[in-house]
Amino acid sequence: MKIIKSSRSILNILGIGTAVSLLGESTLYTVLPHPSISAQLGISLSMAGLLLGANRAARLVLNGPVGILYDRLPRRGLLITSLFLGAGASIFYATGHGFWPLLLGRILWGLAWSLLWVGGNSVVLDVSTEEDRGHNSGIYQMWFFIGVASASFTGAILTDTFG
Q1: Any idea what DSSP says for residue 97?
Q2: 3-state DSSP call for residue 5?
Q3: Where in the chain are the domains?
Q4: Cα separation of 92 and 102, whole Å?
Q5: pTM given for the model
Q6: Class of the CATH-defined domain 7-162
Q7: What does each of the 163 residues of the chain score in pLDDT, given as a tens digit?
């Protein structure tokens, strides 16, 4: 017997996964521009700016093809893959030193975020009706902003505590 989940539970699971996935990403935006931290990583502040923009450049290239993948392949597998790629990118951030390893992590995060954001929004539309599409999109956006806010704060505390 197949269990069908409600759209609310699907949105909450998806939203929590999206929020948690932002820990590494949001930490970088919080701490990387700090001169002492960028120096510890062996990069200049201009390199930090390039690194912070690299994932967005990757997403400009990847969002369209990722959308095609979501039209042709099962969404669940792609979403799970996105979470593992995001975790891998965070490992690059935590262990990388120097511009090139961090750039690789940023590009990997760009792919992960394209998969997660395009897929997440596709799922929101899948589980929505015309009557609740806007509300459901708002719930998913809420989880995103909870993730950004809490991850920035948590990441800064972890960086201060553990370096």
Answers
A1: -
A2: coil
A3: 7-162
A4: 6
A5: 0.88
A6: mainly alpha
A7: 455 568 888 999 999 999 999 988 888 888 888 999 999 999 999 999 999 999 999 999 999 999 999 999 999 999 999 999 999 998 888 888 999 999 999 999 999 999 999 999 999 999 999 999 999 999 999 999 999 999 888 988 988 888 7
